[in-house]
Design goal:
Largest sheet: none
Number of domains: 2
CATH class of the largest domain: Mainly Alpha
Helix content: 55-70%
Shape: flat
Length: 202
Amino acid sequence: MRKLKTSRQPEILDAALAIADERGLDSLSMRAVAQRVGVTPMALYGYFRNKDELLDGLVGRLLTELAPSDPGRTWEERLSAIAWATRRVAREHPSVFPLLLFRASVTSDGVGVVDLVYQALLDAGVPEADVPRIERLVSTFVIGFAISESNGRFSAASNESRVRRGGDAPAHRRLAGHLTADDWDAEFAADLADLMRIIRPV
């Protein structure tokens, strides 16, 4: 077993992410991460005191992938870039991604990404008192859509189920020709456009 150097926190998080991607979040443990990194479990505790801190680190690790590379774009473009990146990360890490919905961002990296959203909303003219609420509205929609898609709720199979479940329900009969979605990219883009319209006049 080797000792960890002070700069090994990213390596630990990458190992934790790889384990969760391969075997699911329930398989993630300090012992499994230590084995993957090649150290004793005790060596990890200088970086993460327990599994909860490790999960917080994973939230921050995922959030860093959402930051747009060009911070000089308009607020609409910045929010859209973060939203589309969120969808991509959900597809790449479907087992870990739901953590973003269940855990707050507490690491400096994670807080930095949320701050980018706050700044975009401020640049949009959202009153300061409303920024946290609007951020929760936007992030809950984007994360929820991404989780629904990556876990199969939005799929060809779900289209069939949506059509079948209506039976004799009157509104379902009326909407029968509109209950399926053929292009989830287009639907996501339309939903984002609706959100932008909500934000713009606030």
